[in-house]
């Protein structure tokens, strides 16, 4: 069995279970990771309601590669433990939960949620800030969102340069910019887990705002990259479409790491369903990556 899916020594593999989080939202645990059992519409309604009540939060749209990193890295698990709402972006996570006996309502892709949440913010009169992306991409995405939703209140955009996380002065600039803009919702497009490390630092600056890491969403909104056709999305093959657009950048993630991890995840989910163990697995120990395990 892949080391990423080996149960802790002395423990039996546990079946996914339903649970309620501290805010009362139903959650499904996938190998120790609590996923919110919400549809996209329910996710949006929750965020807009929380903003209206003056409560901030943090959304993570978890896909397969992020889950792989979560399984193998204690630092990433600690980071994700601070997130208020983790929803399943990748279809493999939706399939795994179904195989384990506690299905999720649907996939909640970050690229779609960025747009639909902006639409809901426009209707509610909430402001949004776009942080990250490639130079000029946040501005392009902001223009497109404003074209789609003229009532949208744009609090600003900012594209940090490469290596900004190692520049204390620039980090302070980001914090000062957001403090002055005071947005209700902040989309951070820097890739996982870099964007989430930054969100963790920004939370105290805007305790009443909701923040969401959104990866390449700005590039999709701005039209720099094309979204996969709906059929590819429904079949869980969006990664094939993206790989065709960016083969050099994504080959290792999707083919070298992704396919073996997906196979192992499906097999482990089937085994855990068969085991019918009643207690949750708990936080996994530090794990090797699949290719490291293969030697």
Description of the molecule:
With 295 residues, this protein is α/β, with parallel strands linked by helices. The chain has one domain. Helix content is 47%, strand content 15%. It has 13 helices and nine strands. It has a six-stranded parallel beta sheet with strand order 5-4-9-8-6-7, sandwiched between helices. The protein has a three-stranded antiparallel beta sheet with strand order 1-2-3, covered by helices on one side. β1 and β2 form a beta hairpin. The longest helix is centred in the last third of the chain and has 29 residues. It is globular and about 55 Å long. The chain starts with 17 loop residues before the first strand and ends with a helix. The C terminus is likely disordered.
Instruction: Please give the number of β-strands.
Output: 9
Terminal Cα separation, in Å?
14 Å
Question: What percent of residues are in strands?
Answer: 5-15%
Low-confidence stretches are 6-18, 276-295
What is the succession of H and E elements? EEEHEHHEHHEHEHEHEHHHHH
What do the pLDDT scores average to? 87
- In spatial order, strands of the major sheet run 5-4-9-8-6-7
For the biggest sheet, the summary is: 6 strands, parallel
Number of helices: 13
Computed over alpha carbons, the radius of gyration is 19 Å
Gross geometry: globular
Structural class: alpha/beta
Total individual domains: 1
Helix content: 40-55%
